[in-house]
Amino acid sequence: MKHKFIINDENIVNEYGYRVMTDGIDTVQFMRNPVVLFIHERGFTKSNGPEGHEVIGRVVALEKKDGQLIAEIEFDVEDDFAKKIAGKVDRGYIRMASIYADVIETSIDADDILPGQIFETVMTSKLVEVSIVDIGGNDNALKLSREGKRIKLKRLKSKPEINSDMDMKSIALALGMGADTKPETVLGKVNELKLAKEKAENRVQELEGEIEASTKAEGEALIDKAVKLNLIPEGLKESQQKAYEADPKGQKAVLSKLITDKEAETAQEGKETAVREVVLNGKKGEGKKTVELTFDYLQKNDPNELRRLRDEEPQEYAKLAKDYAAGKRHKA
User: Fold this and answer.
1) CB environment 130-168: b (16+ within 10 A), e (fewer)
2) Contact 3, 89 (CB under 8 A)
3) Main-chain dihedrals φ then ψ at residue 13, nearest 5 degrees
4) Maximum Cα–Cα distance for the chain, whole Å?
5) What is the DSSP letter of 234?
6) What is the per-residue pLDDT across 16-46, written as a single tens digit (0 to 9) for each?
């Protein structure tokens, strides 16, 4: 017969005003001999010694989830007393279980204290045994010890020492609350602000990730364009991307300038080519005539073509120059 029990919950303050952190509970040694008792009772305090039914079951599985320690308990139904307790659990008359832990480390840090907590928090501990309990919250419902000896946790100071120069009233006033606001209300507000701060920090991290992704995409687009314009060899694309990641602002300025200049140069070359075609072939369309090439026309409208004639067609260039010397001019 198996049943699951929550045997610890760090999300709430227990009946005694403290809490045990679930992640800090060492269960390794316990699971080597995972005994389950009834109300943490082993019988050794009785005058006649153990009666033989102290162990009523065993823990077959432990799970830590969302701050809780969950145990799956299997009862020893071959034992009459254990079978009786198992029956009460099965029928819903007993529904609680708790732990007996050996305390290793405690904390009074404000980050580890919940509203309403009056004793220090048990940060790390060692699980000794698990018990089925009839009434949660009695003196033995949750036992603690240190090195095998029963201990009592230290009581927290009545006012949190957030700052030695501040008291609860000044904290309340700083939060925009009345000076007579109850301490638990003030602490609740502090925790609310703390959660808001954590939420804001998480959002900042999300935005930073989005900006990083956007910057990377922008860099890749600029580099691809630079490669397409033959400003960057294809083989250097990867190294250029690393340089962009290291200095996005600087690399963006450099690449943008190179691309702008190259596009302007390409546009200018296109215009000159168009003019050359007009000069050499005339514009297409009705009523348009081919422009007659003269030295002065080329000198004013297409100096690049004049230079080309000089370098590549010296005879044609000499003819134009001779006509110009003879007084031949372009007629509009």
Assistant:
1) bbbbeeeeeeebbbbeeeeeeeebeebeeebeeeeeeeb
2) yes
3) -85, 130
4) 143
5) G
6) 888 899 999 999 999 999 999 998 877 644 5
**Number of residues written out for the chain:** 332
Residue 39's Cα: distance from chain center in Å?
43
**258 bridge partner residues:** none
Q: How many CB atoms lie within 10 A of CB 216?
A: 14
Under DSSP, the state recorded for 155 is B
* HSE, side-chain direction, 13 A CA sphere, residue 205: 6
Is the distance from CB of 38 to CB of 98 less than 8 angstroms?
no
Distance between CA atoms of residues 323 and 295, nearest Å:
8
Q: What is the mean pLDDT of the chain?
A: 82
- Whole-number Å distance between alpha carbons of 294 and 301: 11
Q: What burial class does residue 296 get, using C-beta atoms within 10 Å of its C-beta: 0-12 exposed, 13-18 middle, 19+ buried?
A: middle
Beta-carbon contacts of residue 182 (< 8 Å; ≥ 6 apart): none
On whether the CB atoms of residues 57 and 74 are closer than 8 A, the answer is yes
Q: Would you tell me how many other CB atoms lie within 10 Å of the CB of residue 280? A: 12
Q: Treating both helix axes as pointing N-terminal to C-terminal, what angle do 248-281 and 303-312 enclose, rounded to 10 degrees?
A: 70
Contact 103, 18 (CB under 8 A): no
Q: How far apart are CA 299 and CA 161, in angstroms?
A: 89
Task: Taking residues 319-331, report their average pLDDT.
Answer: 85
Report d(CA 314, CA 329) in Å as an integer: 20
Asked whether 106 and 123 are in contact (CB, 8 A), the reply is yes
- For residue 145, list its beta bridge partners: 102, 150
CA atoms within 13 A on the CB side of 107: 15
Using DSSP's 3-state secondary structure scheme, residue 286 falls into coil
Indicate yes or no: pTM above 0.70: no
| Token duo for residue 12 | 């709430």
